[in-house]
Amino acid sequence: MVAESLPEFERLQAALRHAQRAEVRYAIKHPELGERWLLTRVEPATLASGTRTSSVVTLDITEQHQSQLRSEQLLHELSTILESTTAGIAYLRGDALQRCNRRFELMLGWPEGAALGLGVQALFAHNPHAARIAADAEAALADSPIFETEFDVPAARGEALTRWYSLSLRRTGETGGTTETVAVLSDVTRLKTQQRELEILARDRELMF
Predict the structure, then answer these.
(1) Phi, psi torsion values for 121, nearest 5 degrees
(2) Is 92's pLDDT higher than 80?
(3) Are the CB atoms for 33 and 18 separated by under 8 Å?
(4) Alpha helix locations (H) across 19-101?
(5) Strand, coil or helix: what is 119?
(6) Higher pLDDT, 193 or 65
(7) E strands along 47-162, which residues?
(8) For residues 36 and 30, is the Cβ–Cβ distance under 8 A?
(9) b/e string for 46-64 if b means 16 or more Cβ within 10 A?
């Protein structure tokens, strides 16, 4: 018996002693196969004589357990990547936000977790261009899998510059008749500032010559 599984194994023993319904996952050390994960189901029953008994079924779920661990590790790694990126990334099903990184919420001015379930127009409610962005996105995604736009964000208190964001919506598939979309929100303020400076420089040169 693997030490970390001892509490669950003891719960199984108690269910067997008292003929109680239970479903227990636990690990054992097999002399030849090494660590194996088992799932035991206990189902209480009563014999015709009135005697209480139990039916017991045990399955080897080692492969399923290892697959679950790999999936959890992958999810953890993906979450770490999403939270460390400078872009805001979100997943929408239909017109409702299902999941996003914290950066996405911060860029749109939402407290943590407050934006879940919101549609595109509601997501951008803090921006004066919300209605336009939502309408343009809906119209574009009806004919194309990709929608891209740029919009400005009024300068927050303490900020001197208006910020510019680039929004990309990509329709990734459909499940049960409901579309799935990935949204990527990037801060392009520096790029827009440099572009504006180059335009001013080019205009000044034209005036000089």
Answers:
(1) -65, -40
(2) yes
(3) no
(4) 62-84
(5) coil
(6) 65
(7) 52-60, 88-93, 96-100, 146-153
(8) yes
(9) eeeeeeeebeeeeeeebee
* β-bridge mates for residue 73, sequence order: none
Whether the full predicted model's pTM is greater than 0.70, yes or no, is: no
Judged by DSSP in three states, 94 sits in coil
| CB atoms near residue 88 (< 10 Å) | 22
Integer Cα distance of 136 and 193 in angstroms? 25
Per-position DSSP letters for 12-68, written without gaps between them? HHHHHHHT--EEEEEEEEETTTEEEEEEEEEEEEE-TTS-EEEEEEEEE-HHHHHHH
Query: Residue 208's CB: how many other CB atoms inside 10 A?
Result: 6
* Angstrom distances, CA of residue 144 to CA of 140, 148, 197: 6, 11, 34
Write out pLDDT tens, residues 169-202: 999 888 888 889 999 999 998 888 887 778 777 7
Q: What is the pLDDT of residues 9-54, one digit of tens each?
A: 899 999 988 888 999 999 999 888 899 999 999 999 888 888 888 8
